[in-house]
Amino acid sequence: MRPNLPFNALRAFESSARHLSFTRAATELNVTQAAVSQQVRMLEERLGATLFKRLPRGLAITDEGLALRPVLTDAFDRIEAVLRQFEGGHFHEVLTVGAVGTFAVGWLMPRLKSFHETHPFVELRIMTNNNLVDLAAEGLDFAIRFGDGTWPGSRAVRLFDAPLCALCAPDIADRLRTPLDLAGEKLLRSYRTDDWTLWFKAAGIAPRPVRGPVFDSSRLMVEAAMQGAGIALAPASMFERDLTAGRLVRPFDIEVQAGSYWLISQKGKTATPAMRAFNQWIVKEAGGREAS
């Protein structure tokens, strides 16, 4: 390993390689063109290799230079990214959270102001998904999923139950008197195939074939219901604003427990300060508890 390679020389080479010009590199680095040229020459001498061919109208990078440039560019980009996290005299830690869209819009977004006020140095990044998520592959610190909390390789913290109930537009609700009236209506479906079967059982009526449209997001399904496309089966707690505003109606009190919302993370992953802060905050907001 070559010791003590000068940082300024490496920076001068990387900038010159991007611009193929000592002059433009000098402008970027706020030094003279002669200083850049001298730094690059020094680096070439230390490495014992020619990094550029000096041409009358600029530079041509050599094979040796082509091998070195991407490594330096990546290193300088990573250094810059970390240094940006110290803006304002504080370290800003990035936290990436994946969440099902229904939860993100219906529960998390209205509460984000509270998190930012109490944790101003955590840069939160929210990614939405349809409940299918790979924490490691997608670079997520946490994911919020709906289900029973048993996902292989994951540590799960239950946030709260989210029972499903029938939801529809007001004009459809006006013609519903009993659950038997659903026989003449279009029933919207999610990726969970047994939701309506469970609801019919809770209502005390025989299951009927369900052939309505299928949605991979409860948020989209309920949006379709609000526009009169049919009746959705979804957690009422995620649509409180629409229910309060009268855009959505719950025609029956019947509900069925099909799962809960969980905060999940990779088993064995060391929690960062930002992860611990978010975990404590969201569990407190939700009144959840760790899974056994």
What brief labels describe this structure?
alpha+beta; D-Maltodextrin-Binding Protein, domain 2; 3-stranded antiparallel sheet; Arc Repressor Mutant, subunit A; elongated; disordered C terminus; sequence-specific DNA binding; 3 domains; 292 residues; 11 helices; single chain; transcription regulation; 20% strand; 6-stranded mixed sheet; WH_DNA-bd_sf
The CATH topology annotation of the largest domain reads as D-Maltodextrin-Binding Protein, domain 2
Total DSSP E strands: 11
**Biggest sheet, spatial arrangement of strands:** 4-3-5-10-6-11
Alpha-carbon distance between the two ends: 50 Å
Mean pLDDT: 89
Number of helices: 11
Q: What does this protein structure show overall?
A:
The chain has 292 residues and is α+β, with helices and mostly antiparallel strands. The chain folds into 3 domains: 7-84, Arc Repressor Mutant, subunit A (Orthogonal Bundle), CATH 1.10.10; 89-162 and 260-290, D-Maltodextrin-Binding Protein, domain 2 (3-Layer(aba) Sandwich); 164-256, 3-Layer(aba) Sandwich (D-Maltodextrin-Binding Protein, domain 2). Helix content is 39%, strand content 20%. It has 11 helices and 11 strands. It has helices spanning 7-19, 22-29, 33-47, 63-84, 101-108, 112-118, 170-173, 195-203, 218-226, 240-245, 273-286, and strands at residues 52-55, 58-61, 93-100, 122-129, 142-147, 154-161, 164-167, 232-235, 255-256, 260-266, 289-290. The strands form 3 sheets. A 6-stranded mixed β-sheet has the order 4-3-5-10-6-11. Strands 8-7-9 form a 3-stranded antiparallel β-sheet. Strand 1 (52-55) and strand 2 form a beta hairpin. Helix 1 (7-19) crosses helix 2 and helix 2 packs across helix 3. GO terms for molecular function: DNA-binding transcription factor activity; sequence-specific DNA binding. InterPro entries: LysR-type_TF_proteobact-type (IPR058163), LysR_HTH_N (IPR000847), LysR_subst-bd (IPR005119), WH-like_DNA-bd_sf (IPR036388), WH_DNA-bd_sf (IPR036390). It comes from Paraburkholderia lycopersici. This is LysR family transcriptional regulator, regulator of gene expression of beta-lactamase.
